[in-house]
DNA sequence: GCCTCTTGTGGAAACGATTGCACGGCCCTT
DNA sequence: AAGGGCCGTGCAATCGTTTCCACAAGAGGC
């Protein structure tokens, strides 16, 4: 059906091996035959058969991206950046979503291996290090993103969750707030733990102790956010500031605050985690901790390309990188009213 | 490195062909050898080499999805649904973004062909019908999504843009509005034309003529939305309702309305196109025309799977389907104040 | 008891590329 | 003028499967 290299070779009056070398090759080929083969190829509309090439040369030009879902803003930003960068380097992206399920994740990683991917970027559970390590060992490039895995032998790019949270909390403290609510993710998530730690560390830096009743942690859902706001605002202590550090919950937090008629920043100062368009257009625009999804994706791609280019697997990079968070000041924070 | 079928065969004491049949096969194999091969395979941790299979049997279990970008809500919803449905059927998704560039689109389609994809879903420019038709002719399943292409020989799933817009406008008319602003996409986009047509048709159904000064069309950017609001609200005619039918522009429209202190729905009734979380949590929650991205994706996947399963390419489905839009009533509309 | 038909199995040829090896010719050196 | 090296090329093996064909053995019909 499609035109093969053999036909190109015949058309150019050379052998298949010469055609192969002329088209792909770094090996010595006379300038004349090279151009002859080239033009034969373009005359016939030759296109390489990737499956055949992959079989023989073990290079598929396919990269797997494993992540939770595409609905989270950080995730689809990362997917977008990764896809674009890799396409520019001649790689295609196989997209896999796991719904945070460990078994699904394992199956997907194995399926990616079946397809002979040259590399994988994993925003994973951290529970499948044996598989990614095996991939790594068999010559596949691997980069862990956002989620770390202690037993992984591959480089990792993390968000500076603790630092971002620390900075946001310090900012609120410096405005004079002493009663700061915290809405976060569960202990099972790296981000859940780290953002809480940043919050606690900041309080301690001012000699304050963490008040358990101001800290609410739960699932990555809008519903939890709504419930958390209700609980915080009907609690015994009046909070004057709120750090919403659970991305999905933020979608419940914002309407809940509006529904209760909370005026921002007069009644309450608000800082949210992970920037997205809605927070810029919210009224007032919301001060956020930008976790730098784009920068994370860029760095992850760089580390992946490094591995793909490096022939010598001995000097592997197994380092963990942190991409700094940034506090983007907008209009949702003010000193507490007396 | 990886264990091959040959090793499995040896381990089970059969020939490679028998092993192949035992593992994949529909052909006759004694129950006993089948189980022997199966257990040999699982003992050794055998996994099929997809490249080899693809080369021999021309089935890659890879599907390409071509779209503009992932930042648009409808697009990443579609990507998410498509990926999930296909994974459940044992297909992996190769994700390609074009940035609406025709040349990029062509290159990506050809690269997908190089990889021997079994099918493609294209949210495309409509300019590359020769390529998708060639793919179709060579046995690849093709479905056009959202964007039509007159010369395409493949089935197409479209949003009911004209109808959605018509319905939204009728709804505003029935509330009593007579001066309704329209912010839309350019003429080059199907959606831009069709939504305008729905608006015009609805006006005509009430015997009203379209007032050019109330219709603003421009690029798919928030900036255009902001500018459009400024122009509409400082125009000679006071509008009492607004249909924001350009998804990206909506991100500029909403803050612009807030900035101008427009009270919704008292000063202005608002309907936006394409639902997204921010519109549910906006204050007040915004009435929208839901174009049914999820339903579109589901139908597109069904049509794709039909083609993949159907052996006989003669009785191909080349129909165009429309997925009905739905008006989701929230709180952003009211009768005009006298 | 012979012939045919079915069933299960193995041999070997693809699929379309890459690549190690060998070879013929030319240039250069001595 | 002869020998060594390099350059350009072709032959053929190989990657791991699937699948066509042939064949052996057993069942069943006459």
From TrEMBL, chains A, B:
UniProt keyword Transit peptide, yes or no: no
Record CDD domains: HTH_LacI, PBP1_LacI_sugar_binding-like
One Pfam assignment: LacI
Gene3D superfamilies referenced in this protein's UniProt entry, alphabetically: 3.40.50.2300, lambda repressor-like DNA-binding domains
Species in which this protein is naturally found: Kineosporia babensis
Protein name as catalogued: LacI family transcriptional regulator
Ranges of residues in domain HTH lacI-type: 3-57
UniProt entry keywords in alphabetical sequence: DNA-binding, Repressor, Transcription, Transcription regulation
